[in-house]
Design goal:
heterodimer; A: about 130 residues; 4 helices; B: about 575 residues; alpha/beta; about 50% helix; about 15% strand; flat
């Protein structure tokens, strides 16, 4: 067992689970979507990105790309949240919530690809 | 993506993780710890404000407590945040600086800059492997003629030397092993402006692999290589290396020529160096016994050239292994008068100080001259940095192996026919050389002597080719007439005519030219540059041939018709 591999896989799967945890619920109901969960999803996603740095293989490049996509989607979601809550005077509406959650769903897709690639890599090595 | 960014990112992985972690924990802590608003109600910081606070706290520790004054619990947490963020930043910046100063990273940076500079080369250049004495001379010689060089050397100090040499056309240098094809490729082996590859390292196998790589990729590209043993030389010749130079052999030939046939040597010297020695420097060759100090690789090559029926050699060497089986040999360096007296310096006609140590060589000739003032002295100079001392040594010949080889390479690059002529020179006798020498003196006197070769093909001599194709004849004499006044003969004359693989040495002036001829001319530099008029300009050639100035310019023709 390789400790580094465990940490790597741990963070990639955690990114997906946190992300899914945030997304699950009625898409337009702010009560179903916890802001701390979004924060943790962003942090873990960033950690995943850094962990994927420096792998020059084709698979590594693909993994880095999915991570960057997830970061971008989550940032967009977080930005929308911050904008409606503090900058526009309206406060959180169901429409804004839908937009935040849909950005995060995109991140879920990216993280899912990441996990699939991780599994593929593992299978290839264990061949 | 490029390697550099990958390496930077991989090395910075840990600092980045630490930074993200510290920021996340700090932000989360501020969100979770309850605070109070200005009226004392319970208030929780949201992520937006928490991240804002952590961001400016991490970088400046300023701005105060926003949006409301902190509670003691929040302040305690902030204390923790301050120290952890500062440490995280210090770690991150320190790691970045360490990477930037890392020698392997610097080397990578240098290589990248070098390869992008080579790729951007717009002018023709030579790829030179090895920046020793010879390499340096060649680079300077090429620079003098306006050709740039790309240099590879195994030692960084030599590359630094290239950068500090203050060339007008700065050469590009890379520290690396030139025998690795990847490095050669970086240095522009496949560049379309690369004119030729010069393998001048002191490692035969490296030279061999450089020559092979170049000849495999571009069979027609010029390859000049240095080789120290006959097996490598034969190997290089087998795949068509254009010029193979054995430094010891080459130097011995040159020195041997100087000792045994001064006039041939003078011809050689005049043709090779634009600024030549005056004619008065020819000494009367005395037959007799020579003393040779230093019997290593160079000494052995020299003794092969020198020993004939007339010349007898006495050898001096410090290493007894070198002298086994030789009759007339003395053990020692030769710097002490005892050793020289043992070698009977009083009866010798000349001495060659040919050790690998410059100070020893100078000492040998000084001691020898004291013992026998009539001695002809030949001294070998190894380091070009010692120029000053050697020029005042009053030796009859100062010979610098690196420079002699460099001159030969430069002559080959500039005028390939000159090398063929010099090879032919070895088969001629002294009387012939003396005659040639007299003619050279008549033509140029003590001015610089230049040489040029021409090929009669449509690219380099369009005018002559057109006249020849029209069925007319052109003699060599035409090329020697002045384009300003055909009754005047310019100070130059042909040395060699090469026709269908045959050499005609010193062709007559009435020799008829034919298509594809290669001609070697020598003379004053000014005269040689006037020659291109006859080769390229049809009306000038017509004037030289017939005396009629058929100027194609209609206005000029009109004026001439009216007033001429």
């Amino acid at each position: 067992m390789n400790r580094e591999k465990v940490i790597f896989a741990f963070f990639i799967v955690l990114a997906l689970t946190l992300n899914v945890g945030f997304v699950v619920g009625n898409v337009d109901d702010p009560a179903h979507h916890d802001v701390i969960e979004l924060f943790l999803a962003i942090v873990v996603s960033l950690i995943c990105t850094v962990l994927k740095f420096g792998d020059r293989s084709h698979l590594g490049a693909l993994m880095l790309a999915t991570s960057l996509v997830a970061d971008l989607q989550l940032f967009a979601g977080a930005f929308v949240w911050g904008y409606v809550q503090y900058i526009s005077e309206v406060g959180m509406t169901s429409g804004a919530m839908v937009s935040v959650v849909s950005f995060s769903v995109g991140a879920v897709a990216a993280n899912l690809i990441s996990v699939v690639l991780l599994v593929v890599e593992t299978v290839m090595i264990r061949r | 993506m490029n390697t550099l960014l990958y390496i930077l990112l991989r090395r910075l992985r840990m600092p980045l993780l630490v930074l993200i972690g510290v920021y996340a924990v700090s932000t989360l802590g501020l969100v979770l710890i309850p605070g109070q608003d200005s009226e004392g109600n319970l208030w929780r910081m949201d992520f937006f404000h928490a991240f804002y606070f952590v961001s400016f706290m991490g970088s400046t520790i300023g701005f105060g407590e926003v949006p409301y004054e902190f509670t003691d619990a929040q302040r305690m947490w902030t204390l923790f945040c301050i120290y952890s963020t500062v440490l995280a930043w210090l770690y991150g910046i320190g790691a970045t600086l360490a990477i930037v100063q890392d020698p392997s990273f610097i080397r990578l940076l240098r290589t990248r800059r070098f390869s992008s500079q080579v790729r951007g080369m717009k002018d023709p250049f030579y790829l030179i492997c090895g920046y020793g004495t010879t390499g340096r001379e060649v680079v300077h010689g090429l620079e003098h003629r306006g050709i740039r060089s790309v240099v590879i050397d195994r030692e960084q100090s030599r590359i630094d030397l290239l950068e500090t040499d203050e060339l007008v056309l700065p050469g590009l240098g890379l520290c690396g092993d030139a025998s690795v094809p990847e490095i050669l490729d970086l240095a522009g082996l496949q560049h379309k402006e690369c004119l030729g590859v010069l393998a001048l390292t002191n490692d035969d196998s490296a030279n061999l692999s450089i020559a092979i790589a170049s000849k495999l990729l571009f069979p027609r590209r010029l390859v000049i290589s240095r080789s120290e043993n006959d097996i490598t030389t034969a190997n290089m010749a087998s795949f068509g290396t254009d010029l193979i130079i054995n430094p010891f052999r080459q130097f011995a030939d040159y020195l041997g020529l100087a000792v045994s046939s001064p006039h041939r040597h003078l011809v050689y010297d005049w043709l090779m160096h634009p600024h030549h020695r005056p004619l008065s420097s020819v000494y009367k060759h005395a037959t007799g016994r020579w003393i040779l100090c230093g019997y290593g690789r160079f000494g052995r090559a020299l003794s092969e050239v020198l020993s004939d029926d007339e010349t007898h050699l006495t050898l001096i060497d410090i290493n007894p292994d070198n002298l086994t089986g030789i009759e007339d040999a003395v053990l020692g360096v030769g710097t002490e008068s005892v050793t020289l007296q043992e070698a009977r310096v009083e009866e010798a006609v000349g001495i060659v100080a040919g050790t690998a140590n410059d100070a020893d060589n100078l000492s040998i000739i000084m001691t020898a001259r004291e013992l026998n003032p009539k001695l002809t002295t030949v001294v070998r100079q190894n380091q070009s940095a010692n120029d000053l001392i050697f020029s005042h040594s009053k030796a009859d010949f100062v010979m610098q192996p690196g420079q002699i080889i460099a001159t030969r390479i430069l002559a080959h690059i500039r005028t390939p026919l000159l090398r063929e002529f010099l090879d032919l020179l070895y088969s001629r006798d002294e009387v012939w050389a003396h005659t040639l020498m007299n003619r050279l003196v008549q033509v140029v006197g003590d001015d610089p002597l230049d040489s040029r070769n021409y090929t009669l093909d449509p690219q380099s001599a369009p005018a002559i080719v057109r006249v020849l194709e029209a069925g007319n004849t052109v003699s060599l004499r035409t090329l020697m007439k002045s384009p300003h006044d055909r009754t005047q003969v310019m100070s130059c004359f042909p040395l060699l005519l090469k026709r269908e693989g045959r050499h005609i040495v010193m062709p007559g002036e009435l020799e008829q030219l034919a298509l594809g001829d290669k001609i070697l001319f020598c003379g004053r530099a000014g005269a040689l540059s006037e020659q291109s008029w006859a080769l390229e300009n049809e009306s000038t050639l017509n004037y030289l041939l017939t005396g009629e100035d058929s100027n194609p310019n209609p206005i000029l023709r009109l004026i001439r018709k009216r007033y001429g």
